[in-house]
Specification:
The chain has about 150 residues and is α/β, with parallel strands linked by helices. The chain has a single domain, classed as 3-Layer(aba) Sandwich (Uracil-DNA Glycosylase, subunit E), CATH 3.40.470.10. Helix content is about 30%, strand content about 15%. It contains 5 helices and 5 strands, in the order E-H-H-E-H-E-E-E-H-H. Strands 2-1-3-5-4 form a 5-stranded mixed β-sheet. The longest helix has 14 residues.
Length: about 150
């Protein structure tokens, strides 16, 4: 059977979201100036900030000078983040690639180059703080990253 009057779909046909994401752009106000390392946390609590400061101190980085910290608890889309920031390194704690709108198969503690940025996804900081094997995995990857 031959198809007659075949028409390609218009742009309106493709104008839909495959995975609707809960997104808030409130994180944009958190941006101060250009920082080379972007860290996204699934929640920001004092204990996590203390641990994060220790992590960056251990790798020889000053968190207050080199890190842009973003609260991802209200939802965060990678595409929006990329539009605002010139990403070099992106560390994500407690969120999956899919939760950020990335349709990539990335394991935790695996450095991936994507769109000229190096991405590292890991468990939330509370889980890492209480699990020695996860601490070791994170430490190994951070040494490779920096």
């Amino acid at each position: 059977m031959e198809i007659k009057n075949r028409k390609d779909p218009t742009a309106d046909f493709y104008n839909f979201e495959i995975y609707p994401l809960k997104t808030s752009n409130g994180w944009i106000e958190q941006l101060k100036d250009k920082r080379s390392i972007v860290v996204v946390l699934n929640r920001i609590i004092e204990e996590d900030l203390v641990l994060l400061a220790k992590i960056f101190q251990a790798i020889g980085k000053k968190m207050e000078e080199e890190v842009c910290l973003i609260d991802g608890s209200d939802g965060l889309n990678y595409k929006d983040l990329r539009a605002v920031l010139d990403l070099e390194e992106l560390l994500v704690f407690g969120m999956t690639p899919n939760e950020m709108g990335l349709h990539l198969s990335i394991s935790a503690y695996q450095i991936v180059e994507f769109q000229n940025a190096r991405l590292l996804f890991s468990h939330d900081l509370n889980t890492i703080a209480n699990d020695l094997s996860k601490k070791k995995q994170l430490w190994q990857q951070l040494q490779l990253l920096f």
